[in-house]
Amino acid sequence: MRKFITLAVGLLLLGSSCYADNKTSLYDFRFWSSPERTRIVIDTDPGVSFSIKQNKGHFILSIRQSKILQDTYKKLFYSDHRILKTRIKRNKSGYQLTFKMNNSYRIKSYTLLPNIKYKHHRLVVDIYDKASKAIISKIEQPTKKNLQSKIILIDAGHGGEDPGAIGRKRTQEKRITLSIAKKLAKKINRTRGMKAILTRNGDYYVGLTKRIRIAQTNKATLFISIHADSVLSSKARGASVYTLSKHGGSTKFARRLEQTQNTADQFGVNQHTTSSNKQLDKILWKLSRKDRDIQSQKLGKNILSQLKKIGHLHKKKPQKAGFVVLKTPAIPSVLVETAFISNPQEERRLNSSKEQDKIANAIYQGILSYYR
Ligand SMILES: [Zn+2]
Fold it and tell me: Who's near 142: CB < 8 A, 6+ residues apart?
């Protein structure tokens, strides 16, 4: 069946008339491939007017009254296991981008407003495999061995369109968190009776509530979210560990951090959970919140005492915050701020593979001592 979806932001169109040639500039193209979807992000002027026409084997994205900057032109020709080829056609009314597709797919599109990290308006097109539902529910069947294992969910903070904090040398938090997460996973997977699962395995964004779902569907026994800290001052240094607080952050600082972490959901689409899920969450929450909080504290303390051996601590005790990623009912969860990416010395350290390994090892030792 042919589908024709037109989305136009009428009000904003008025605003675009102040541009000299009346054309919407397309400033940049970014593509992010994840197991679940391919995300296309286009930086635009406000009031982009576009339509998507879906056909078998390809779709056409038409952007009316648009112009493509020379620098970004070549970025458009991206391919992955979903997008086979991209063609571009210019016509009177703008540009027509044709994406040749590998499989049957479905598309979601929407626009995003500028934020701290992106100064332009953004047009986002998400391409999902038609069969992606099956992939999501394809959870490893619990084998006898798995039943006995402790499943450690390792969450590399940020990813894809969400770079996280950025250091003075332009180090992106999302890259550091992924490499530490992978190093930690390796250590865990080499340990008898333990198994690591990553919430993401590459440079793409995973919604915050999706990260929690991954932990739940895999029956994780621990949830560890890895981040790097950032503040305006370049002097702040050291690691900290956060556990969940029902009432939000315990200090001003924790509250600020919580805001920056949770707004990351702007990078995803709807993070809604169904009402039945919510109900279930409520029950699980009540049943186990107290026990989980005690366990999270214990885990946090164990990790901190290991991190202390390899570097500075920003806070000697686990801090409380209301991060969405820590809201995993029944699963002890901590968020580790490994060091300050905003501190030049620590930025250098975070970039060093050897130091990343030390950090991963400290977290690993913390997990081992938690279970001892
Ligand atoms: Zn972060």
Answer: 219
